Amino acid sequence: MAAPREVDKTEKITINLGLVDLGQIDLLVAEGFFSNRTDFIRTAIRTELAGRTQAVNQTVTRKSLVLGTCHLGRAELEAAQEAGEQLELRVLGLATIAPDVTPELALATISHVEVLGAFRASPAVKTALRPRTA
């Protein structure tokens, strides 16, 4: 598997908040504690994650997860296929499979997919790997 690397990408999410919670956030923004709602939410998430660093690190170690980004390219998967190897794709972050990887090659070389974060691959490869995805 490719070594993890830092990327500057984000994933958009939608959350539902109660009106009282939203009003409190707006009050903090209006008072200048945060520049906008998004700033508040990012800060709150980072604060919560920082308080759980030990639990995340223990889980990453226990599950042998790649922390960050993992990209599997066609050449790497063809080399694994020639060597008779099966790869387990376990990532906390972003996992990508190159667009030129065929569903057949993915099935021949990837035995398990577990991604906590975002998984990007062609629709055909995702469909082929669905039964192997945790």
User: How far apart are the termini?
Assistant: 18 Å
- The fraction of residues assigned to DSSP E strands is 15-25%
Describe the global form.
elongated
List how many beta strands DSSP finds: 3
Could you say which structural class the secondary elements and strand pairing correspond to? Answer: alpha/beta
Number of helices: 6
- Would you list the SSEs in sequence order as H and E? HHHEHEHEH
Roughly how many Å is the radius of gyration? Answer: 19 Å
Question: What percentage of residues falls in helices of 4 or more residues?
Answer: 40-55%
What number is the mean pLDDT? Answer: 90
- The parts where pLDDT drops under 50 for at least 5 residues are 1-7
In which order are the strands of the major sheet placed? 1-2-3
Largest sheet: 3 strands, parallel
Care to describe what's here?
The chain is 45% helix and 22% strand. With 134 residues, it is of the alpha/beta class. Strand 2 (87-97), helix 5 and strand 3 form a beta-alpha-beta unit. Helix 4 (74-82) packs across helix 5 (103-109) and helix 5 packs parallel to helix 6. The radius of gyration is 19 Å and the shape is elongated. Residues 1-7 have low confidence and may be disordered.
